[in-house]
Every structure is written in structure tokens, then in C-alpha cells.
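Predict the 3D structure for this chain.
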Amino acid sequence: MVLKRTNVYADDHDLALIKEAAARLGVPEAEIIREGIHRIALAHRVWDEPFVADEETFDLGGPVTGGDVRTAVTEGYEARQRRNEGRDGRGGHAA
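Done. Predicted structure below.
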């Protein structure tokens, strides 16, 4: 990967957060900045093609409501909690 130099103006508070993160992770501040730029660039990328083709999707039998999504997420979360609680009786992994 070829890196190019550029100047960026940043808020003092953001720079302090970057400095703290770099020190905590033991990496240069520039690495934190490059990662942030990369992540936001990917988050705003516009794809030329759909993420999945029609033949890669599946029929849910009808419209899915917000309530359906909430119920599915809640049930999945509760099932995960039950699985995790069974590992050591306290919600974590057994040693």
C-alpha cells in the first residue's frame, strides 16, 4: 500500500482521544488516524452492484414488522444470555 501525505485539521478533543488510544494500544497516532479514515470511507462507500442478488435472498413469508424484529432480537439476546450463564453459572466462561 502506497501512503500519501495530507494535512487534516482536527479538534483538540479529538486529538486528545487519538493520543490516548495510540498510547493505550502502543501504536503511532497516525495509525489510529489512518484506521479512522479507512473506516469512514468504507462506511460511506456506494456499491455499483447490490450486496446480494435476488436469488441469494430468501422469502420470509410476508412483510416483517418492527415488532417482529424486536421480538427476534430479544429472543436471540435472551438465548445467548442463557447459553453464557450455563458456562460457569455466573454468566462467563469457566476457567
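The chain has three helices and no strands.
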